[in-house]
Amino acid sequence: MSLSNFLSTLDDLQQQALDAFETANDADSLEEARVRYLGAKKGALKDVQKQMGAIDPSDRKTAGMRLNEFKTKVQASFDESKARLGGGDQSSLAPTFDPTLPGIRPQLGHVHPITQTINHLMEIMGRMGFEAAEGPEVEDPWHNFVALNIPEDHPARDPLDNFYLATAKTTSEKTTSDRNVEGEQLLRSQTSTVQIRVMEHQSPPIRVISLGRVYRPDDPDATHFPMFHQMEGLYVDEHVTMANLKTVLRVFATNYLGGDVQIRFRPSFFPFTEPSVEVDFLWNGTWIEFGGAGMVDPAVFESVGYDPEKVSGFAFGLGVERLCMRRHGITDIRDLYSCDMRFLSQF
Ligand code: PHE
User: Fold this and answer.
1) Where are the domains positioned within the chain?
2) 135 lines ligand 1 (CB under 6 A)
3) Element (H, E) at 51
4) What single-letter DSSP state applies at residue 57?
5) Does the Cβ of 317 fall within 6 Å of ligand 1?
6) Could you tell me the CATH superfamily of domain 113-166+180-345?
7) What 8-state DSSP symbol labels residue 102?
8) pTM greater than the 0.85 cutoff
9) Torsion angle of the four alpha carbons 300, 304, 308, 309, in this order, in degrees rounded to the nearest 10
10) CA 185 / ligand 1 centre spacing (Å)
11) Cis peptide bond N-terminal to 102, omega within 30
12) From the alpha carbon of 316, which atom of ligand 1 is closest?
């Protein structure tokens, strides 16, 4: 066989093989083409290789190089088509998973027990006509102290009892005389700040609650944490009395804790209420303190520009964690702030 014959046979064969692979549109026709051109036993390549023997030895080198080129090109074309058809044989086109097996349920998060409690409290108080109000967690001394009738030398303003934010001077540079600098900011120590913020912008009648975080430098133990939540309530109108306060708190406690919850007022002192009381709920035969309350002090009304002769009001502040813990039988406040899903997923 002459070299030129051999080469033109290869050219034709190569063209046919490439066409066959490129036009194969399923695994079967691709496999058929593979057997026809590249098949080890009867394939066209096999025939051509046999013809090599009939070529003049001086031309064999050229013929061999062309044959190698043929093999590479045809193989590449086959590989490409195989990839295009997602495999090349029937079995690899079959699904690689068992669609009859049950799926894996995605893990969904859920609302944290404290947030659940907050939503529940807002819902109960909302039914009594209390709207939600909000204030910033970073406060100024006016809203956290001054407007609430807490004078400059009051122990509640002590740096050891508050998280003051470092301003121009660092904490270590501060002297005692610097400690109550007006304008210095702090993390609010109570939600009573929101009473002031609401009254500054609205006129009576006012009926709001505010639920949010407060901060105090307490060492964490089963009942203390440096950050916790309070529910503040404020009701201002003409002729508001302490009887109204007691009724609202009793209706609230009964709704939140269930049953007819007895409530008890113990005389106390807060600079921003007069008279002031500690509020206890009777729970399973024991009295438990849930917060403080009282009639809004006239000095507070004056600081927001209300006339204490015309309006009266009550305010209360209850601990949200304490309410949540009582309701769910939680005994350690720190569990609420752990990331332990075994604990959290129970709620
Ligand atoms: N702010 C008080 C506290 O954090 C609670 C309180 C609120 C008392 C409103 C009276 C009226 O202890």
Assistant:
1) 3-83, 113-166+180-345
2) no
3) helix 44-51
4) G
5) yes
6) Bira Bifunctional Protein; Domain 2 (3.30.930.10)
7) P
8) no
9) 170
10) 20
11) no
12) 9
